[in-house]
Amino acid sequence: EKLQERSQIALAEIAAQLHIGSELVLNILEPRLGTIVQGRLEGGQLYTPAYVSRITAMVRGATRGLTVPTNLPSVWNSLQQQLQEMHGANGVSVEGSFFQSIFVALLKEGAVLGSVRAGESV
Question: Which residue ranges does the record assign to the E3 UFM1-protein ligase 1-like N-terminal domain (predicted)?
């Protein structure tokens, strides 16, 4: 329920609410992802499909506009600031690795052009 309200939730938060370990939560959730549990698990966070779609659109838009080699962490920081402005003080936080994995998937499917060098620039 909280996942649907906030679009993301930390596994540690779920574990604390249920008074069980995060590892147990992970073991319970992983086999159910895509079936009973609709979401994407990454970096200890569970995201709704709608939220993943929104972030994917942001990453696609930001990276399609790049015309010179650019440091990707600076792009991810800009996107993070936009998310915080959109959601206010209680804004959601997204790990840079989540942005990076979405970007790599967009590269593989040809949705954006470019290449990653040293894992940090395009």
Answer: 1-120
